[in-house]
Records
---
Amino acid sequence: MNEKETKIWNAIKDIPDPEIPVITIEELGVLRKVEEKPSGEIIIYITPTYSGCPAMKRFEDDITQTLKEKGLDENVHIETVYDPAWTTDWITDEAKKKLEKYGIAPPAQKSYDKAAILGKEPTVRCPRCKSTNTELISQFGSTACKALYKCNDCLEPFEYFKCL
Amino acid sequence: MTTQEALFKYTLRIGDNDLILGHRLAEWCSYGPTLEEDLALTNIALDLTGEAQALLQYAAEVEGKGRSADDLAYKRPERQFYNSIITELPKGDFGYSIVRQFLFDAYELPFFQMLTKSKDETLSAIAHKAVKEVKYHLRHSANWVIRLGDGTEESHNRVQKSLNDLWEYTGELFEMDEVDETVLKEGIGVDLTLVKAEWDETVNKVLAEATLTRPEDGWMQTGAKREGIHSEYLGYILTDMQYLPRAYPDAQW
Ligand SMILES: [Zn+2]
């Protein structure tokens, strides 16, 4: 990245995810690239976690707002890209620890493989008591990217960030 | 038919399936049999609507007449929608919605998997994204078909009846016409006979586990995907879905 691109990147990288405010758009992997075009125009590329992710508009608004506050919003545009498709493999290890501490079990394996359609569920660790004696309640939680689990030891329900 | 015309209609067909089925599923919001199921169905609806958004946006670009994804979703009349009839049928009871979803998911997963190999970079990118989501959809609907089919006598009979009633709408998903032939020749589209083979395998496997009987193939209802000739139900969906943009054409969020 050139100096201008780095400056923009650094200005927005710490914007929190609107639904999971302990992790940033950089750690989540939603912020993909900042690129200066030969015309001088700056394009910020973001990618959705899920196609229907309702937070995308919020990401855009937050980025625009942050740049405005820092006086960096001139000739900057945001574009959504689908390729390469977002994967939970991009969530940094640091961010996975933060997720667990926040009460959301981080993705337990590499992204989902084809054979797993009717296969076994992954082993998910309870973010509260760390027990692996947990069970799936529903494949879909409060958002499409999370599943609902319950812990059979501490008996608390929790959310699990699904592998994608 | 030029490649561009074929690609436009092809992209609309995929996008319209997702848009209309997403709308149907969203009707379960606050009516799900359990809270978890309510969340699941509406989350799947959201995935489908998101996929539709990307596809309709691309269709609008391909068309090149200055229309947006919203224009295509909210300002097209019924005869210009090319979704398959199965996606527009009323939601029925939970078992009916689940069987319809399963029959569709079992089609959509191999379809998108094959579309990832498309020479069209945008369709390939959208397909890569969608495959990840549709795997979860199929897992969800297949599990429910097994649970209901191999459940009580009542649940078994009801999903068997839903399956029998829906069967005549499955043929349209695999029908190929000039649009398909054109994009297939260009390496952009998918050979639906290959999708059908995978669909058969998934359907047979899940129905067997669910102790359900696969209906005999007979007369198949078609015409919507090819020519926009729909069941009576699409008009009602559009009345609902398009009301606001038609009443207030310049409304902004
Ligand atoms: Zn626990």
---
Amino acid sequence: MKKPDGKVVLLGDMNVGKTSLLHRYMERRFQDTISTVGGAFYLKQWGPYNISIWDTAGREQFHGLGSMYCRGAAAVILTYDVNNLQSLIELEDRFLALTDTASTDCIFAIVGNKVDLTNEYALLLERADESRPEKPVTSCISTKVQKQVHLDDAVALYKKILKYKMLDEKDVPAAEKMCFETSAKTGYKVDYLFETIFDMVVPIILRQQAEGPPQTVDITNYKSAKRTKSGCCA
Amino acid sequence: RAMVFVLSEAGKPIYSRYGNEEALSSTMGVMMALVSFIQSGDNAIRSIYSDDRKLVFVQQGPLVLVSVSRTLQSEQQLRQELLYVYYQILSMLTQVSITRIFERKKNYDLRRLLAGSEKILDRLLNLVESDPGFLLGAVRCLPLPASQRDALGALLQKAITPNLVFSILVAQSQLVTAVQERAVIEECRLEPTDLHLLLNLIGASSAFQAGEIWTPICLPRFNPDGYFYAYISYLDAECTVCLVLLSTDKESFYAVSDCKKRVEEAMRTQGSLQVLSGGLQSPSYSVGQVGVPGYPGELPPAAPVHQRQLSSSPSPELEGPYCSEEEQQRLFDLYHYLHSRIHSTSRPLRLIYHVAEKETLLAWVTSKFELYTCFSPLVTKAGAINVLTKLLRWIKKEEDRLFIRYPPKYSTTPNPGKGTKGGRPDGAENGFFAGL
Ligand SMILES: Nc1nc2c(ncn2[C@@H]2O[C@H](COP(=O)(O)OP(=O)(O)O)[C@@H](O)[C@H]2O)c(=O)[nH]1
Ligand SMILES: [Mg+2]
């Protein structure tokens, strides 16, 4: 197999819809009953590049696998549920730290999923109408609720991430560009999300390749890390 | 079917079969009150019988499991069912972690860690109540000529990498072959229970062919406190054939994924997928195949056969009056009943000849096998024994095809640099492996 050139990781609490987003993008459909066991690895051909995508379960911190999924990542997609404020808070509290092993120039996207359930959805559709070829399935939206998390909250989180990563706003993509609202159920902005990310990952791949193959560094990293670890393990 | 609840010692709902925990929290409250009341007297409740139902309680560490049932199932079986649920929870979280979590915070909401896995437990309970393998503690294996099974085993033996411990090939939840690291000592081989839990976990998750799964998993019977890292991938577009590779190294995803590519490649050149789909299409065995001469109006002998050391149990396709789901369930309940009689702790039996309303059943247990059969109500005892003898002769002849007799092994050469850590599940501190 061709080694993947770049790595994208989906992180976020259980049930926010990470697997559904990936299903929608890769398989063009939505399945109501999806359950994830741990992490799942997918390969996506993007132009001449092989991009690997890790879907995670939301228990990574508990299982200590987060750093493995994130190691060397060129992009991290932090996902929350727009109807669940806690899921946004968890991103900062539990998931941000897992990205410490990501590539130094890793890009971050913040994605609020399940917008189809909110009362703002119709409005969003109108605004985005021209650019959307697919007709959304409006019939399945019956119980609309007041949105709990607004785009501003996501933007605020994005800025906190930059601070955490000690990055300058001038050197990274603008918050407005990196905060998305999607619906895996209707497909709203799902392609847009992944394609935007993949396009942004390409320059990172090129830089990583210029500096040496990241995936092999991956394995060497782990070996030296393990050796030191077993040295201090009781 | 049995209602099943799992709650924490503090009374927090963790799981409930059929319905959401909120709606049932009042029921849970009553149960908790009962549990704590009797516990306080140093005398944990085991079960409560009312006119038409049984309540069975099992406490495991900080978890309380409750089953409410109206079926023929014995208390012992309901308890077994609850233990399966407990083990499945362990398979996702391990025993030490659960203990630690509740030590730190008595009223922790364990659903935070189990969200999304209700489906796994729902599916498990449905299986426990319908798959004879659970009743018998054996895993159903795909009938396959021995030469073909050996060829597939050999292929798995070649596709190895350090710290790989088990390689398992499965076709539609039926075991094709399982290869294990030589260093795993005899008594700690892959347990049928663990295999059931693993296969259930896989079956309950969405299958799509493009993805490869890498997940921590605990095999609680093997070691309730340690994780393996499971690589799971389907080998065909229809997601029927599944490869499961268990490693003790959580970082070995790419190496293990590479093993899968080698397996895939070798299977392609050997045409193994066609062999397997052939095996899947032919019914496991029909009563006709056994060559039992017909009795007028005879019912099919339904015979989950279990050979103790082999961990496998084919059953024939159910025929005739047992085509409907209700009838199958009814028959299965009868088997459950016989099973409980035969394995009764107070008075175990070797042979039961049971004349029921619509059929006559015969159950037989020896040190080598356990056999459950069902006949027309008109059968005579001599007639039934005669059929059994023929059936056993047929099974003996077909043994190599129906069972996995000698699971193959490999040596993934624990990396000397890694010292004794190689070949142990993560976090395991017990000497499960030989040669430590
Ligand atoms: N209405 C709605 N439901 C969704 C959406 N995305 C996911 N879901 C549902 O939310 C639940 C969790 O989704 P899943 O993809 O498994 O979440 P994950 O745990 O983050 O992978 C499932 O029942 C999905 O059907 C969405 O965009 N809209
Ligand atoms: Mg998921």
